[in-house]
Amino acid sequence: MTMTSPARLRAHHSEFVKHSISSRLPDILLSVVNEMPQIDQEGEHASKIKVAAKGLADGTFTITSINSSDGGPCWIGKVGGHNLETDAHSLLVDDSKQVYQKLLQLQTPQFEGGSSSVVTIILDNCGTELLYDLIFVEYLLRTFPKISICLHCKSHPVFVSDALKVDVMTHIDELKTIGKAGSLSEYCDSGRLSLSEHDFYTSPLSFWEMPEDLKASLFNYGLVITKGDANYRRLVGDGLWPHSTKFQHVLSYWNKSTSLLAVRTCKAPVVIGLDYKIQDKAKAIDSKWLVNGKFGMLQFKK
Hints:
Shape: globular
Helix content: 25-40%
Strand content: 15-25%
Structural class: alpha/beta
Distance between the termini: 44 Å
Order of helices and strands: HEEEEEHEHEHHEHEHHEHE
Number of helices: 9
Largest sheet: 7 strands, mixed
Radius of gyration: 18 Å
Strand order of the largest sheet: 5-11-10-9-6-7-8
C-alpha cells in the first residue's frame, strides 16, 4: 500500500479547496445567503429566520433554521432529497430547541464576558460544508451579540477535505466576493471570532482521551458543537452501543458545566439515543438508514 506524503497531501488539499469553493459557491450558496434577513433594531428575531446552519456530505445534507411564532427555532432542511418540513423522519433526533435555550442563557449577565460565553465549533470539512458553517457562524454572532465563537481546526489534513485554519480565512475571503458574511473579518479583528488547532483532531483517540490542555480549553466553554460523523463516533468511543442507549449516559465523562451539541449524518452503525419507534420507522423507510447519509441527528447534552 502506497502512503501519500504529508507534503503531497497538503498540495492535494490546497487544490481541493481551490476547486471546491470556486465550483460550488455560486449555485449552492447564493440562494441561501440571499434569504438571510437582517435583525431589526430591537435585536428581536424576525418571525421567520432562514439561514444555513449545516452542510454535510458535499451539500446533500443541509439544515436550516426557521424561528417559529413562539420564539423558538424549528429546524428544517433536506437530506438526500427528503424535505424535513414534510419528511420529519429524516432528522432522527432534533434537540435544536434546547440549543436555542442554551444560546439565550449565554446572553445573560451570568455568562457575559468570560470563557463560558464562548461557543466552540469543531470543524469537519472545507469546501461547501465550511461555507455553510461560516454563514451559520455569522448568523450566531449577529443574533447573539454577547457570545464569542472559536473554530477548532485540524493541525494538518488527514483527509484531503479536512478544514484547516488557513482554509477558514480563504473561505471568508470567498464569501466576501459575493458581498455576504463580510462582517466575519470584523468579528475576527474584534476577537469575537477566533481560530484554534490541535493535533488531537488528527488522532484516532476518543474524546474521553483528550490531552489535558485541550480538555481544559473545551471544558471552559459554554457550548461545544462537534460536526461530522467521525467526530460523533469519537464522542462515543466508536462503540457499537445498542441504539437505544442514552446519549447522556455515554457522554457522562463530559464536563457538566459545558453543554455539547453533536451534529452528524449517519454514515456508520454507531448511533445512540434513539427509541425503538424511531429505529423502526427509519428501518421501514430505508434498510440502509444507518450508513447511507440520508438521516441526520442533532443531539444535545446540557
